[in-house]
Design goal:
Order of helices and strands: HEEHHEHEEEH
Strand content: 15-25%
Number of strands: 6
Number of helices: 5
Strand order of the largest sheet: 4-3-5-6
Oligomer: single chain
Structural class: alpha+beta
Shape: elongated
Length: 130
């Protein structure tokens, strides 16, 4: 699929229209897509594909995945969520995952940002240096 300037502009306009009070409004998204499908403008499938991509990226920016080697206690979890919300905004959603492959420490992913403080990452960096 080749994305031209017109597709980008229309998709970004749809994305801007999808927000209510700084948050994505599911009702607006559904009505935008339904009205767009009903109108069927030229290359509407490409526009909807690009709009879907933009929506996914926007949702990922507001979701944190926190991986740790062991379950975190509630105080630690609350402190991590509080610090992330200060940094990324109050509408951040969180997901805690236990990943024993980390060996120790934790990895936090918010959108395309990754903070990796795991033992596994440190060992891999040390191995590359040697």
């Amino acid at each position: 699929m080749k994305i031209n300037k017109e597709i980008r502009q229309l998709s970004r306009g749809m994305l801007r229209a999808s927000f209510t009070d700084g948050r994505i409004d599911r009702g607006k998204v559904i009505s935008l897509v339904q009205s767009f499908i009903a109108q069927k403008p030229r290359r509407y499938l490409d526009i909807l594909q690009y709009y879907k991509r933009l929506l996914r990226l926007e949702i990922d920016k507001r979701h944190a995945r926190i991986e740790s080697s062991n379950p975190l206690n509630p105080e630690t979890s609350a402190q991590i969520v509080e610090n992330l919300r200060k940094k990324k905004g109050p509408d951040l959603t969180t997901e805690f995952v236990v990943n024993p492959e980390l060996l120790g420490g934790m990895r936090i992913r918010v959108g395309s940002d990754v903070w990796d403080g795991s033992v596994r990452d440190r060992l891999e960096r040390l191995q590359k240096q040697l």
